[in-house]
Design a protein that fits this description.
The complex is a heterodimer of chains A (113) and B (114). Chain A is an all-beta fold. Chain A contains no helices and twelve strands. In chain A, strands 2, 5, 6, 10, 11 and 12 form a six-stranded mixed β-sheet that branches. In chain A, a hairpin with a 4-residue loop joins strand 8 and strand 9. The mean pLDDT of chain A is 92. Chain B is mainly beta. Chain B contains no helices and eleven strands. Chain B is globular and about 35 Å long. Classes of the chains: A mainly beta (113), B mainly beta (114).
């Protein structure tokens, strides 16, 4: 069955430090992979997506993610975190079999000054 | 270009009542999906509509239903409300149907059941 796992429920990083959010997926073929961000009281915003080709994808707000087929991972990275990056981040896989999109449980990012 | 608009933003109902939520997609987007977000279950897919037809459906009881109009606007209805239906309901639109389509989300309708 298709699934997405985000092992970290929450992460705290210092402003200016680098960030890596982990995501592992289970899927039978090459998946469609997404990262979304949700700020409090708002809907989700697409950060980046991977369909095929270059395994390192660039997104908005300085984020990037790397697809590693051998590890079934799609980790999100940012070299220098800003206080405004504090939010909840969701990894998702575009699913077949009727479920449209399967989301991970989310990782809440806290940024300390 | 205007984003996805959901109305109302907040709603309070009591058990046993029914509720209708509305979603206007981005202009030109033909697919509308609905999700339920709760602290315990996370984001759960409800259903997707495309060209006025339900294309996909998640694992929710028949009390949850929806429809899509010819202008792509969509409504979601929940009948016989239960306390467990308290959640943030998110609508998302995309240009087309299919698993690879990036989705654009509205800010949601927060439904509270008393």
């Amino acid at each position: 069955a298709q699934s997405v796992t985000q092992p970290d429920i929450h992460i705290t990083v210092s402003e200016g430090a680098s960030l890596e959010l982990r995501c592992n997926y289970s899927y039978g073929a090459t998946p469609y992979l997404f990262w979304y961000v949700q700020s409090p009281g708002q809907g989700l915003q697409l950060l980046l997506k991977y369909f095929s080709g270059d395994t390192l994808v660039q997104g908005i707000k300085g984020f990037e993610a790397e697809f590693k087929r051998s590890q079934s991972s799609f980790n999100l990275r940012k070299p220098s975190v800003h206080w405004s990056d504090a939010a909840e981040y969701f990894c998702a896989v575009g699913a077949t079999g009727g479920f449209k999109t399967i989301f991970g449980a989310g990782t809440r990012l806290f940024v300390k000054a | 270009k205007a984003g996805v608009t959901q109305t109302p933003r907040y709603l309070i109902k009591t058990r046993g009542q029914q509720v209708t939520l509305s979603c206007s997609p981005i202009s030109g987007h033909r697919s509308v999906s609905w999700y339920q977000q709760t602290p315990g279950q996370g984001l759960q897919f409800l259903f997707e509509y495309f060209s006025e037809t339900q294309r996909n459906k998640g694992n929710f009881p028949g009390r949850f239903s929806g429809r899509q109009f010819s202008n792509s606007r969509s409504e979601m209805n929940v009948s016989t409300l239960e306390l467990g239906d308290s959640a943030l309901y998110l609508c998302a639109s995309s240009l087309d149907q299919g698993a690879g389509q990036p989705q654009h989300f509205g800010d949601g309708t927060r439904l509270s059941i008393l």
